[in-house]
Task: structure prediction
Amino acid sequence: MAIDRDVALNSDPTVREVSWTERDVILYHLGLGAGENALDPAELRWVYEKNLQVLPTFAVVAGQGISARAIPPAGMALPGIDIDLRKILHGGQSLTVHAPIPASGTARLSSRVADVWDKGRAAVVVLEQTATDSDGNPLWTSGMQIWARDEGGFGGSPGPESVATVPDREPDKVLVSRTGPAQALLYRLSGDLNPLHADPDFAAAAGFDRPILHGLASYGVVCKSVVDGVLDGDPTRLRHYAVRFAGSVYPGETVETAVWRNGDRLTLRATCPDRDGQSVLTHATMEVSE
Result:
């Protein structure tokens, strides 16, 4: 059995120490398309060590650079979970930021399977990671939903249901982000070496025309766009960010993000105008400080 829910939920968390440098942060930002205009001071803050800012979504790759994973895994192997990479897609992601992430640092990272949902033919594995600094102070908590095709039917709960809705009015702002044709190849150097994002044959076997951009890259692209375009370029104003991945982006395509604001809560909808407005991110919200 590829999924044993009881084993997955009752296993002890995996705890490890992770560290990162300014170089890791800059490489991550470049993988999101930062620095396209190298003469723009606002862009240099993401890609130049002088006054370097850290996008909060860096948390999802902190300590996971290519040196830490030089050989791509054959599957997702966790206690009670053993699934071929060809069967999994990143279904959703959340991030709660407890403190600003430093440009270089060390954290204690605790990882566990928080839940497993039975969607019928598919299963959803919910992974949770918490990070604390050397004094035990919380830095961030992240949640990842992994959609595993053909792994359902084990009789578990289907998980919570929610409907993707946006306000019944025009968005307060529409932000446009153009991805580069080699962006997935650059982004994967931050740690996710899944061949789905580099190998045309592997992507074809998974049902895609060509390699796709990482879901977490789309997640970061939209975050950067909102920080730049709505939060006055201040990443420390982001408190919480959650999305579902509704569609893939091919490197070179544009991501268009509509933003509705209601006080300290933002509702987002990201689409791909290159493919008739196909959804990229849904159920997307941010909580921000004024």
